[in-house]
Amino acid sequence: MSTIKNTQPIYKFLVTLVLGLFIQPAIAQILDISYMSSGGKLKPLQAIMDIRHYTINMDVNIANKSIHGNTIVTLDLSKQTDTILLDLVHLLTVEKVKVDNKPATFTQGDDKIYITGTNFKEGKHLVDIVYGGNPPIAVRAPWFGGFIWGKDRSGNDWISINCQKEGGRLWFPCKDHPSDEPNEGVEMNITVPKGLIVAGPGLLQKVVTKNNKSIFSWKTNYTISNYCVVFNIGKYIVAKDSYTTINGNIVPIEFYVLEEDTVHAKKVIATKIRDTKILEKYFGEYPWVKEKIGVAEVPNSGMEHQTMITFDNKFTYQTIGGQEYSANLFHEYAHEWWANKVTNKDWAHMWIQEGIATYAEALCMYELGGQEAYNEMIANHKKSIKYIKPLVGGEELSEDETYAKNDIYVKGSFFMHSLRYVIGDAVFLPAIKKLATDPATTYDNFVTSTDVEQLFSKAAGYSLKSFFDFYLRTTNVIEVSVKEVGYQQYQIKLNNYFMDLPFDILINGQKEKRIIGKEGIKLKSNLPPTIDPSGFYLKKVTIQ
Questions:
Q1: Please, which residues have CB within 8 angstroms of residue 67's CB and are 6 or more apart in sequence?
Q2: Domain span at residue 359?
Q3: Are the beta carbons of 180 and 48 closer than 8 angstroms?
């Protein structure tokens, strides 16, 4: 997701103010989901449930800003239970439920569906839920999610969905926790007025048009995060091309662009092709070769929706090294590797996807503009760190508890920069590619910070746990003291020592690399030495 400053306190103030003024019922509905946040502690009734597949059949009534249909959830229970628990926002009303084609008793409350009436045996079950209503309307998409019922400049309907913060329950019944994705994918059959186009994840199977309505059937071949199970509707033209991956696979490129913006399609597709080559160089083959490289133009800032990232930067670009670059387009695309392929099993470790996707931008700067462009971006990340909370503040946290700070982006990126210096390019670059390509850390296998640390430690040949803990689980910086202990003699120590670290040091104008350990080091210099002149660390230097 694109970066944003922490606006939550202001947002909650506005919620209170607006509701206090009783402006209109629709506003109350919009603001009614401010408390919702995906993830958190996994509920025992859901810990015994493994989601295998979702089939979503949905009729979108644009005039009424409502949806109606059913979702079929295929799941495996690890043991017998008297209750199946799924999540669905309370603004949508459940009408009936069947389990294994038999009517089931249910209650709905607190954004949950409790399905009871019998003992559900261990093994596979199909849960069919019919529901509908007016889904939440987005306040500030994509950061505060919901539906946007908009119009393009020509007056055509233009609808988007975003739900990373709130989770997929914002519009379909699901197990709303990052640790479980539908391993056998998702099918969506979305009905819209004739003349509009539905952009979705995976591959378009068919379009059936009758009675002034069109049904777009989308299907994924891969596991997919709940918040990526979304669709966008517009008066789209599909601009197409193809890309041959680093491993020789041919992948279709599809850009769902508004009719009025087709003049921009060629540049967007060319940018995607170039960016794919950069990302494949560092992180391996494009992850979704069985599907597509997809982009959909939407009326909000971009999101990393799997195989159909969304994009709206008004088609403006920066010039880097003589080439045009879109931060919005690149960052969300990097998430196809970091979020969609390498997925955190707990929002507590969200820095993995956001921090490394942000670091990928610095790598792109290097490819387009050289070392100077890379250094400039890293310096900007460094000065943007707020040190409000640790990147990892515990375990089993909600998206809100982790996301409400910019540091998961910029400190996460700078951490990768520091780690690269500590272990060197010869170790770092193959290791980060392994993280993005190893079956143990990708697709159906989710990761935590410990998994990432152990992978890099194994690559380095020694434990990096202390380094990871310092950067991820504290807000500290490295405290370095430089003390004159004799004529042109200096002692350099790390006052909050946690492991032996390499440092570049300017000694008499010459840069040398030294390892500073628990006891520190002594050196001779005509002038006070300069520690880490290129800024590879978050540090505070005290000269005594």
A1: 58, 59, 60, 61, 92, 132, 133, 135, 171
A2: 347-473
A3: no
Give residues with Cβ within 8 angstroms of 386, minimum separation 6. 405, 406, 407
CB 339 within 8 A of CB 353: yes
Partners of 132 in beta bridges: 68, 93
**Residue 310's CATH number:** 3.30.2010.30
- ∠ CA 446-465-38 to the nearest 5 degrees? 35
CA–CA distance, 324 with 318 (Å, rounded to integer): 5
Instruction: Mark whether 222 and 296 lie in a shared domain.
Output: no
Residue-wise pLDDT tens for the chain (544 aa)?
765 444 343 344 344 344 444 444 444 444 479 999 999 999 999 999 999 999 999 999 999 999 999 999 999 999 999 999 999 999 999 999 999 999 999 999 999 999 998 899 999 999 999 999 999 999 999 999 999 999 999 999 999 999 999 999 999 999 999 999 999 999 999 999 999 999 999 999 999 999 999 999 999 999 999 999 999 999 999 999 999 999 999 999 999 999 999 999 999 999 999 999 999 999 999 999 999 999 999 999 999 999 999 998 789 999 999 999 999 999 999 999 999 999 999 999 999 999 999 999 999 999 999 999 999 999 999 999 999 999 999 999 999 999 867 899 999 999 999 999 999 999 999 999 999 999 999 999 999 999 999 999 999 999 999 999 999 999 999 999 999 999 999 999 999 999 999 999 999 999 999 999 999 999 999 999 999 999 999 999 999 8
Phi, psi of 87 (to 5 degrees): -110, 140
Provide the CATH number for the domain around residue 158. 2.60.40.1730
Question: What's the structural domain count of the chain?
Answer: 4
The whole-angstrom separation of Cα 287 and Cα 496 is 41
Q: What are phi and psi of 177, to 5 degrees?
A: -150, 135
